[in-house]
Write a structure and sequence with these properties.
This protein is an alpha/beta fold. Helices cover about 35% and strands about 20% of the residues. It is elongated. Bound molecules: adenine.
Length: about 220
């Protein structure tokens, strides 16, 4: 999977893409991430990428020209299955959407900033608009990182234990069951006996029952 992320704050990505699973995915050659600084595509002498909104109102709007230059250059080099714009008025990200998007080979993620982007970018370049939740962030960068992380861990070979993405919360519309590790008893608080019993089938049933119980308690909407 190749992700091309377009942003006016490229440094924000330094930490998240160079740590842990995302870093290892790149080292294994399973994922490529390229960060493009929108300012490099600015055509004006101050490297501006935003301007005042026509009709007035507070907040700056990202201009179409640098975004067009960047996207068009990328599209001339390879085919993209999706060009995603991260925005609070997009469709809310969920595990099903992440599963589907993780099958794509090449994607562009466009991070909005300030008051957003010129609507013509959305009308003519964007294939999908995604929100990570009903709250407003200062820009699309954190949302792009959330989306990228949720996709990368689904790419085959990225997780060491292949089954581990399959047993995540939401994968079968159930929240994940509780987990425990050593010691089996701490300050008198014991791990459920079944987990140390060695009965694989019984453990699987316990996990499933606990997942259903947790989902009924916390997210009954998932069971509908
Ligand atoms: N940009 C600002 N807020 C956002 C959100 N909630 N989701 C995606 N992109 C955003």
């Amino acid at each position: 999977m190749r992700l091309d992320i377009i942003t006016c704050l490229p440094d924000l990505f330094d930490g998240p893409i160079n740590q842990s699973i995302v870093k290892r995915a790149q080292q294994k050659g399973l994922v490529e991430i390229y960060i493009h600084n929108l300012r490099d595509y600015s055509t004006n002498k101050h490297n501006n990428v935003d301007d005042y909104a026509f009709g007035g109102g507070a907040g700056m709007v990202l201009m179409i020209e640098p975004i067009d230059s960047c996207i068009s250059k990328l599209k001339s080099e390879r085919d993209y299955q999706e060009i995603v714009y991260l925005t609070p008025d997009g469709k809310t990200l969920n595990q099903g959407m992440a599963n589907g998007l993780s099958m794509n080979e090449n994607m562009i993620l466009l991070c909005g900033h300030y008051k957003g982007v010129d609507q013509r970018v959305r009308d003519h370049f964007i294939t999908r608009e995604i929100s990570i939740g009903d709250y407003v962030l200062s820009g699309g960068e954190l949302a792009a990182m959330v989306l990228a992380d949720s996709l990368i861990r689904l790419v085959p070979g990225v997780l060491n234990d292949e089954s581990s993405a399959l047993t995540d919360s939401f994968q079968d519309n159930l929240l994940a069951p509780p987990v425990y590790t050593r010691p089996a008893e701490y300050k008198g608080w014991k791990v459920p006996d079944i987990l140390t019993s060695g009965h694989e089938a019984k453990i699987e049933k316990w996990r499933h029952d606990e997942a259903v119980k947790r989902t009924e308690e916390r997210r009954p909407d998932l069971l509908k």
